[in-house]
Amino acid sequence: MPSTLPDGDPVPADGTLPRSALAGLGERPFAFYVHVPFCVTRCGYCDFNTYTATELGPGASRDSYAETAVAEVRMARRVLGDADLPVQTVFVGGGTPTLLSPDDLGRVLEAIDKEFGLAAGAEVTTEANPESVDEAYLARLREVGFTRVSYGMQSAREHVLKVLDRTHTPGRVPQVVEWTRAAGFEHVNLDLIYGTPGESDDDWRASLEAALACEPDHVSAYALIVEDGTRLAAQVRRGELAAPDDDAMADRYLMADELLSAHGLNWYEISNWARNADAECRHNVLYWTGADWWGVGPGAHSHVGGTRWWNVKHPAAYASRLAEGVTPAHAREILGDEDRHIERIMLELRLADGCPVDLLDERSVRSLVADGLLEPVRDGRAVLTLRGRLLADAVVRDLT
Hints:
Blueprint: H1 19-22, E1 30-36, H2 53-56, H3 62-80, E2 87-94, H4 102-115, E3 118-128, H5 135-143, E4 148-154, H6 158-163, H7 172-182, E5 187-194, H8 201-213, E6 218-223, H9 231-237, H10 246-262, E7 266-269, E8 272-274, H11 282-288, E9 292-296, E10 301-304, E11 307-311, H12 315-323, E12 329-334, H13 337-348, E13 355-356, H14 362-370, E14 381-382, H15 386-390, H16 392-399
Parallel strand pairs: 1-2, 1-9, 2-3, 3-4, 4-5, 5-6
Antiparallel strand pairs: 6-8, 7-8, 10-11, 11-12, 13-14
Helix pairs in contact: 3-4, 3-12, 4-5, 8-10
């Protein structure tokens, strides 16, 4: 089941934000994240806030979800007032967003455009499972305004997909990428996971090569994390599956960087490679560079001007609150200057552009350069080396 929400301070019933959050509103880029909490089946490694039909219970449904999400978009407009906030990016994640119809996803996008306005050239992404779309679906998705699709490929090996409880076959991915291009999408991302129990180096290489054969302009590669409370964690605890090996994980990352780079996809964030700047996921870049965003949906997180809040998790509770005209926010926190400073270092250091060196302790920077974890400082930026990317969490600890 999904993990529990963090504690925090109470949120006013009308969702009012503190004055500090509204200061400078509109001076920072603004985005929307829309969470769709539905899945056909629950993958064994997943602790995201998602629900199958049997887990959903009364009070919420896919059929009414778009209307509920639109209500939160309208609430966002009331809370944020009249500030001019052209939306730079919209990212629809899940769950499996493409369990909703393209028209339902389009209704939410239309509400965002009506209430805030989409910036010229806005990036509009949805995640999708390969088995959840077909040619007609993708054509309509492009018609309603989406510009980018991110597919959960995960692996090209059937036995690896089986361990992950993924339901698509390896051959499905090339087919849906072809359909996506034919529908007029310029940007296609493939998500991969490495370190699955039973995956060999040859399996991982085959997955990378299969992804590259589809000619995406963006690939994300994530190390498998065994999350407490998941079916995978229980299997590892019982000894049915081996825990991921840290050394093997590092080798897989190095293999990914080598192969992806050799095929013209360059890293711009630790887990992300893109064909060029236009192919980068602009939405995620906004997260990593301190922008403002409003998260729509149960369990969704938002951030505006140093105030962060998160919605109630269950779709029924979420729908009930919005029907009553009450904020769906469960709790919030107001970040202090020191917290914001540390968070900025932690996030910006993940990027190939690095972090301004004047935010950092000079002695620590010199030591990390000497240890080969940071590149020699250039243009006032601290940038991780390849070895530094493998040890990024330790580098951040040293710098903060």
